[in-house]
Amino acid sequence: MDLSAYTPLATSELTEDTLVNAPVYGPEDEKIGTISHLHGTGVTMEVIVDVGGFLGIGSKPVRLGRDQVHLMRDGAGKVHGHTAWTKDQLKDLPEHLD
């Protein structure tokens, strides 16, 4: 995935309305999870990503810092995230408990 062709989200777009259910892709451009919710705002925002499972069943929520997920729009306007973490690395993180 050539990330240079995508537009980073503006700070004003970093909201749950924009990001919840957005797919997150890993370093090999494979879908590794879905954003379930956010904690905080701006540069200190944390992104909670559901990893694994099927259709949200059996997935594990993990917490990533805002600096660990690049949030952007593709040419069609669809929002998604991209991270250097692999699915296996995320599965090894502690489960996020609200």
SSE succession: EHEEEEEEH
Corresponding CATH superfamily: PRC-barrel domain
Using the coordinates above, name the CATH class.
Mainly Beta
Could you say which overall geometry the principal axes of the C-alpha atoms support?
globular
Spatial gap, N to C terminus: 32 Å
Low-confidence stretches: none
Using DSSP, what is the number of strands? 7
In a few lines, what is going on in this structure?
With 98 residues, this protein is mainly beta.
Account of the protein in words:
It is a single chain. With 98 residues, the protein is mainly β. It has one domain: PRC-barrel domain (SH3 type barrels, Roll), CATH 2.30.30.240. 10% of the residues lie in helices and 35% in strands. It is built from two helices and seven strands, in the order E-H-E-E-E-E-E-E-H. It has helices at residues 16-19, 87-92; strands at residues 7-8, 23-25, 31-39, 46-51, 60-65, 70-73, 79-82. It has a seven-stranded mixed beta sheet with strand order 1-6-7-2-3-4-5. A hairpin with a 5-residue loop joins strand 2 and strand 3 (31-39). The mean pLDDT is 91. This is PRC-barrel domain protein.
What does the secondary structure layout of this molecule look like, with pairings?
Blueprint: E1 7-8, H1 16-19, E2 23-25, E3 31-39, E4 46-51, E5 60-65, E6 70-73, E7 79-82, H2 87-92
Parallel strand pairs: 2-7
Antiparallel strand pairs: 1-6, 2-3, 3-4, 4-5, 6-7
